[in-house]
Amino acid sequence: MSEPAIDRGAAFLDSLNDAHLERAQEPTKPTPLPDSLPPVKAFNPEMLPSDLRSYVMDVSQRIQCPPEYCAVAALALLSGLMGHKVRLRPKQHDDWEIVIVLWALLVGDPSAMKTPAIKAMRFAIDAIEADMRRAFEAAQADHELDAELNEMAKAAAKKKAKGFADKGDMQAAKDVLASVEELAPAQNAQRLTMNDATVEKAGELMNGSEHHLTIVRDEMAGLLSKMQQEEYAADRAFYLECYNGDSRFTYDRIGRGTVAIERCALNLLGGIQPSKLAPIVRGASKGTSNDGLIQRFQLAVWPDPARDWQWIDRTPGPQAKEEYSRVFYRLHGLDLGADEDGNPPAWRFTAAAQQHFITWMVEINQECRSGSLSPLMAEHLMKMPKTVGSLALLFAVVDGDHGEVGEVSTLRALEWADFLRTHAERLYSASTNRDIEAAKMVLSRRDRLPQPFKARQVQQRGWSGLDTSEAVQGALSLLEEHGYLTAIETPTAGRPRTDYYWHPDLVAQQEGK
Predict the structure, then answer these.
(1) Residue 16: which residues within 8 A CB-CB, separation 6 or more?
(2) Helix 384-398 and helix 351-368: axis angle, to 10°?
(3) 194 phi and psi, to 5 degrees?
């Protein structure tokens, strides 16, 4: 390189340093980094019917978990028992129908008591399934005896028919053989819950059941991660269809042949850690896996972690537990008949309830179309009418209403909508939460970095959440945006070099320690 060129390069570097020093003389004050998580509304027990409320709060207090964990677990399980027994028509004249299907997701750290909450709330449905299993086993034993007797009757008829045939009386022989009726096939075992199943097995269980299956997973991350993979694209499509509750789904498999599911419906209930939720939300926000799957988790709750703990040792409230259990048994045995076409009955809102629902629908649709919301949030809210309708209908049935969904049930459902919206906002913040947490970590450990420093020096430290260049760059960009850092780019023979300078106030603080 010629000497004039070297001089020009040195002069250029000097000008950059001078510019940096000039900016540092009168720097703007850093602005606080945003909160990692948006605030959520506090849970109001009055959002639940009284027969559920007492036990939900009893469990929450005894195991010291957020009450919303218990509440959404109970609602997801109950929606499975409602199944196809009744539907809601949210409009007075239109034939739009809502089938109750609820997907619940309990978000929290490993110590948040997600699994104990689910276990405590499912005791009633587990007892019902145990009763069903015993009844099936008894029916199966009876069927085996009937099958043996049927075989004996067939053998006796054949012997008698042979005598008639030997005499040439073929009609009498046919009549004798026809007199033995074919034994009806054994009933299939019915299920209410399952932890995992192939699409084919789930389809077999769905057919012939008026209940909806509910998949219960301690950790939903495994199922969601599996459905991110290309080889499980068909399973993902099946789950998406199951959310509607009344879609027809047909699959063809070698060995099983063609199986048509007339009304595929699945409720989902499980927990997930924030760190495992974040990549799923990021995939949806970037469009790489945004087909509406995560938005279907309408009963997703992410409460603030508990900061206190105390020793509590008392028996469960017997009356609260009994009231809760009775609701499950009542909905399991519920028979609301059918309409004149043989379809499940469809309820509508009362006049007062209808007006509340209309007002809310107008507001939510106008907001979603205004362009003021993120695409993910708008998509989530556009699925909320099904959730509000499902909750209103479920509350009406639990409260013992008949034929219509009243004002009390509808107002409860609308309060749930407001409550769940704040949790949805926190849920979708998971895509940006990583940068905020990483930025806070770099800021808190700035004394371990030189002045100036380079991005790779941060990555080399091996700090949690900062192990990739993408994560480091996101954190440093956020710190620069809020005035904590100044990035100075220097041309080199190859790629430009970027040095990061801490704000002078931070440097002074560090030197004063």
Answers:
(1) 488, 490
(2) 160
(3) -155, 160
